[in-house]
Amino acid sequence: MEIQNARETDFYKIIELDKKMIGSDHRKEEIVQAIKEERCLIMYQEDKIAAFLIYHTHFFDCCFISLIMVDPAHQRKGLASSLLAHMSKISPTNKLFSSTNESNESMKKTFIKNQFKKSGFVDNLDEGDPEIIYFKECY
Questions:
Q1: CATH code at 90?
Q2: What pLDDT score does 3 carry?
Q3: 129 near 102, Cβ under 8 Å?
Q4: Residue 93: predicted pLDDT
Q5: In angstroms, rounded to a whole number, what is the distance separating the alpha carbons of residues 85 and 73?
Q6: Starting from the edge strand earliest in sequence, which strands make up the sheet with 40-45, in order?
Q7: Fewer CB within 10 Å, N or C, the chain?
């Protein structure tokens, strides 16, 4: 599967996947803005979005992957790793960060597999489930 920048025509398919995963479309504005600013990467499987990633550079002027979504039908096939590897190559800053909940064992393993290191944590976002920050140096 090829990784490409999302286009405006991909918006509804991205929202469909996001809503499927979280049960809400409350991130519509964030997603449309990321598409407009070319900060949303997608992977297609046939005519459906199999995975997408959104990033920004508002995390202490460093690149931060704020969202990675993989359709359940395509999980455990390396799509998140492919997106992380691609982001490591195209990151607009030398420092790349992301995060996941402490309870998300799958994503924690994916970060470690892709040479991200734990960089800290944030309490009080999700009750009883700290957010772990991950870091990778990009060249």
A1: 3.40.630.30
A2: 96
A3: yes
A4: 97
A5: 21
A6: 3-5, 40-45, 48-59, 62-70, 95-101, 131-137, 117-122
A7: C
Domains identified in the chain, total number = 1
pLDDT in tens, 15-33: 999 999 999 999 999 999 9
The CA distance from 89 to 82, in Å, is 11
Please write the tens of the pLDDT for every residue from 83-132: 999 999 999 999 999 999 999 999 999 999 999 999 999 999 999 999 99
> What CA–CA distance (Å, rounded) separates 26 from 29?
8
Structural tokens at position 14: 């991205």
Residue 76 has pLDDT above 80, yes or no: yes
Domain that holds residue 98: 3-137
